[in-house]
Write a structure and sequence with these properties.
three-stranded mixed sheet; Butyryl-CoA Dehydrogenase, subunit A, domain 2; Butyryl-CoA Dehydrogenase, subunit A, domain 3; alpha+beta; 12 helices; Butyryl-Coa Dehydrogenase, subunit A, domain 1; 3 domains; 386 residues; four-stranded antiparallel sheet
Length: 386
Amino acid sequence: MIRDPAKFAALLADIRRFVRDVAIPSEDQVEAEDRIPDEIVEQMRRRGYFGWSIPEAFGGAGLTTEELARANLELSQCSVAFRARVGTNTGVGSESLVQDGTDEQKRSYLPRLANGALTGALALTEPEAGSDAGALATVAEPAGNNAWRINGRKRYITLAPIADLFTVFARTDRTARNADAITAFLVERGTPGLTTSPSTPKMGQEGAPIGEVLLDDCIVPADAIVGGRLNGGFRTLMKTLNKQRINLAALSTGPAIRMLDEAVAYARERHQFGKPIGEFQLVQAMLADCKVEIEAARALILQTARKRDDGEDVTMDVSLCKYYATEMCGRVADKVVQIFGGQGFVKGRCIERFYRDVRAFRIYEGTSQIHQLNIARLLLRDVPSG
């Protein structure tokens, strides 16, 4: 659903200018320094990129699902670090509040998330709990004076070293292992007992740090519970991920678009056997395969976004999107490296970086295998037996 076509076209044009004129020229610097320069972050704040998904009533742009998907397709055509820097605020770092926060919680946090004054993070994954969210070991217990004491350790948390507000998922019923025992808490940096690690060294995505969130007798008031709903955290998480998986699918398709553009340009300029390599049919076949897969992913994403905007159940659709788009991006990356040959393997061109950066897409927010299981479960549930 596009609410105001002219206004939205202007937003897309602004994103394309930012990607072309600011982000792409800075990619090598961001990788070398493992950080986005402050002046570029400030540019993204001024352009309103941090508030895309936050309702207009709280200072955001209030983009529809389709508008957000289209914006993400554009922003992600540069180094993954740029979209990651704003992506938690337009995704998992704010969506729990948008979906289930109390009015007071929304008024307190959403305007600052929308303007980038705060950076949000979702703290779910633990050493022994990733795909199996029901296995959380982090525990929150009553601490008296209408407060809760949280103890636990989160890891691989996107932007943890620089985030200001953490949505922490903790077990609030020790006797139960299932999802009904989990509560979501809003914990600000600076709260006694909460610390974060330095950036965890990783394969790629330099400039988008991940790290641990350590909770050691971290005391938070009862009004830090998202929506005031004790043991409602897992349902909040699923609502958040149902939307964010559409976003991630779009954010995984943008890099594939960029890589194909780079491959087409290289196929025209690189000569072997006296002619451009783009004239060889096996190279053409790889380019064609990339284009078909990108357009299939784009169509699936936009169809799913429109269904969500229309109020339809997209539980299966979001798994289809996330699974297909992230796997597609990996296949495109592999083909593009092959087209570039040695130039795709060495540093100096963006392809080697993208090849490393996009590998994580198939792991976070539900591994490909988890989504395969989810799709199959829904198929078997919905199709009558016999």
